[in-house]
Amino acid sequence: GGMKAVLWADVFQSILMYAALFAIIIKGFLLLGGNGNIFEIANKGGRLIIPRFTLDPEVHYSMFSVIAHGIIITMSEYGGSQIQVQRLRTLKNLNKSKLAAFLSIPMLVSFHLLCCLCGLIIYAYFRFCDPLTSPDSPIEAADQLLPYFITTTFSDLPGLPGLCICGIFSATLSTISSTTNSLTSVTSEDFLKPIFPSLSIKVFQNKIISE
User: Fold this and answer.
1) Cα separation of 48 and 62, whole Å?
2) Which of the residues 60, 75, 122, 191 has an alpha carbon 20 to 30 A from that of 129?
3) pLDDT in tens, 19-31
4) Which PANTHER family did the record assign (predicted)?
């Protein structure tokens, strides 16, 4: 239970997420003729935008805004996030915590790049028929495009649609499990213990708090 259960759950959920991403990318390459065609279609459609090197704050997408956003998000995630800090503090010493933080960077970058590639694949696949604007649209929101793409293109491959949908849900469940565990720790350590110093917070009591 506790953080150990959260970490192991994250491991298996991460495997499912990467498996789903690779399945979508491979299927997209087969349907669209490779990554060259995908990037060419995305470029013609104005989906590949290179940030401009300008300090003008009125420019929506500039290199300055990208770097500033990356620094702020990364500092808040690795330096002030209860979820991340609590995980790093479970390691034996500071050096291992630093190593874990640095090792997570390439995994996080690769995950975001794969997600962007999946987005380009979905755009290229639906470029001539947008499911959101078609009269008999089977979906109602943009966040339904990925599940619709999965059910449409993987219908001839038994098991793969379920695997990909599991990958999507794994991303959500991973966040929920980590957040719930962190909120439970904060509640027990920062709210209950100061009020009841002699109170012993055990695992089953934390489980009750989380529920």
Assistant:
1) 13
2) 60
3) 889 999 999 999 9
4) LD47995P-RELATED, SODIUM-COUPLED MONOCARBOXYLATE TRANSPORTER
